[in-house]
């Protein structure tokens, strides 16, 4: 389509739709912080966003699609945090992986955020194929940055030739999810506690990965 074919009015409508969708999603997240995923109704989201139920369904056909949107937003946000670690990793491989895992916490620092993510993780187990694809994309983003860090240390001759980067990235992701679930389940566990735990585990993990 030629740029001349896009009228100012259609551009305004597109921006208005983006803003309305974002507002509905913010309302949904605010509710999910207070109530469980199962308890939150689409009607509640509409009321919170001050729009009609039909409007909510126009943007999010199912409650599960709200979950997908939250996951997609989370992936975009965390990619920047991962990038910061991968662009300038610490000199120690275990510390670099621990910092990457720590970056995954993002803004999950309050009991409300932990509660939201407990519901998100539970929803992952109940997810249909569409949600599974979204979760797989989140997983692949983390693993992509893990492989970048592993390649960085390989170029410095600090990673053994027998270490398969793909398999190693799978293991690091599995470790991340185990620790993240524990972090969300323990209300008194702080981000610093998570980082210390990640450091302990990654040191043990990479002990035999050297050249």
TrEMBL record:
Pfam families: TetR_N (PF00440). The keyword Magnesium does not apply. It comes from the Bacteria. Residues 41-60 bind DNA. InterPro entries: Homeodomain-like_sf, HTH-type_TetR-like_transc_reg, HTH_TetR, Tet_transcr_reg_TetR-rel_C_sf. The keyword Iron does not apply. Residues 18-78 form the HTH tetR-type domain. Keywords: DNA-binding, Transcription, Transcription regulation. This is TetR/AcrR family transcriptional regulator. It comes from Salinicola lusitanus.
């Amino acid at each position: 389509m030629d740029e001349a074919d896009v009228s100012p009015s259609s551009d305004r409508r597109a921006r208005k739709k983006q803003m309305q969708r974002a507002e509905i999603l913010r309302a949904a997240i605010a509710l999910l912080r207070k109530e469980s995923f199962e308890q939150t109704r689409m009607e509640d989201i509409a009321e919170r966003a001050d729009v009609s139920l039909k409007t909510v369904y126009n943007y999010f056909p199912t409650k599960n699609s709200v979950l997908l949107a939250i996951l997609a937003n989370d992936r975009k946000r965390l990619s920047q945090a991962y990038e910061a670690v991968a662009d300038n990793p610490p000199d120690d491989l275990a510390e670099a992986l621990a910092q990457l895992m720590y970056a995954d916490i993002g803004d999950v620092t309050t009991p409300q955020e932990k509660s939201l993510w407990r519901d998100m993780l539970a929803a992952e187990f109940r997810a249909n194929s569409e949600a599974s694809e979204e979760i797989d994309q989140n997983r692949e983003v983390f693993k992509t940055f893990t492989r970048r860090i592993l390649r960085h240390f390989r170029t410095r001759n600090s990673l053994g030739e027998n270490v398969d980067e793909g398999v190693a990235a799978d293991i690091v992701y599995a470790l991340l999810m185990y620790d993240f679930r524990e972090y969300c389940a323990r209300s008194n566990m702080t981000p610093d506690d998570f980082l210390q735990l990640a450091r302990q585990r990654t040191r043990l993990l990479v002990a035999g990965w050297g050249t």
